[in-house]
Amino acid sequence: MVKGVLALVVVYLLIATGFGIYWSFEPARFDVAAQASQQAEALGQEPVVGYYTSEALIKVTETLLDKPGGYISNDRLPPGIWLDNMPNWEFGALVQARDMSRALRKTFSRSQSQSTEDPDLVVAEPQLHFDANSWILPDTEGEYRKAIKALRAYQAGLAETGEDSAQFYARADNLRDWLGDVSTRLGSLSQRLSASVGQRRLNTDLAGSPGASQSTKTAHESEIQTPWTEIDDVFYEARGTAWALIHLLEAVEKDFGPTLEKKNARVSVDQIIRELEATQATIWSPMILNGTEFGFLANHSLVMASYISRANAAIIDLRELLSQG
Question: Which residues lie across from 221 on neighbouring strands?
Fold first, then answer.
């Protein structure tokens, strides 16, 4: 009896391990333009301005839920509960989906600060900000699918005419506002990735701001280092962030095409996408290495930080370009 139970446990663990390895494979890229065209054709519509961005956001969110293993971050049973890298990848992509949903509700869908919010986006944005680790009552997946349903309703309304139709305003100031959020996220990730080897950093919090103050005093110099148990977590969060951003930027390039052409900025978006694509290269090592800057072993975090920093620098330049008349 005992041997039979042990045999069943061993078989279960082996099967769970196999599924765990399969579930850890990162999702492939998808064609934003093709997805938007297929969705528009299914509804008998034309992909109007805003169609590509809304489709990219929907597809990124659907991928989190429908990839092999589904949404893993809230799993409470093996093999999901054992997995570490994929939940962090999911979180990176989810943050970008949340930021884009907020940008849609706050700026892209509104002509001015006093205009009314789109009712479907009023539902979608808070649903995507629901607790990412809720297992049941309610479950995270169910709340995110409600957000997708609301986003589909908003997308369908873009092609409709009339006073109550949904809108998407592809203006330079709107794009610049969203890119500011993206830049902030990438800047934080870059710092956390760079801290994998430890750094002595000077306090520049109030630099360049005469008369500025802060709540409490902080040290003039501090030692910043990511705990070794979190190095792979930050790395895969950056991978998920970059994966989502690639698709969102491809969609933005479609919807904001005339604006980017007028500013001669399309090549800048292409360069940002190219830098982010480099973060998706195959990882040949069985683990994320944390060698010193010029040591014998690679430091995957520093390589990732390099690509993220260059993409962020290009975004800062793009925002400056968009702010010019």
Answer: 202
Q: Render pLDDT for 6-49 as a digit per residue (tens, 0 to 9).
A: 888 788 778 877 877 888 889 999 999 999 999 988 888 889 99
Residue 145 confidence (pLDDT): 97
* Residues 92/239, Cβ–Cβ less than 8 Å: yes
Say if CB 97 and CB 164 are below 8 A apart: no
Contact 150, 124 (CB under 8 A): yes
Cis omega (within 30 of 0) on the bond before 126? no
In order, the DSSP letters of 165-212 are: -------HHHHHHHHHHHHHHHHHHHHHHHGGG-EEEE--TTTT-TT-
CA atoms within 13 A on the CB side of 12: 9
Residue with tokens 């794009």: 175
- 62-90 as b/e: b if 16+ CB within 10 A: bbbeebebebbbbbeeebbeebebbbbbb
φ/ψ of 202, rounded to 5, equals -80, 150
**CA nearest neighbour of 149 among 117, 134, 127:** 127
Helix (H) or strand (E) holding 293: none
DSSP 106-144: IIIT-SSTTSPPPHHHHHHHHHHTS-TT--SSS-HHHHH
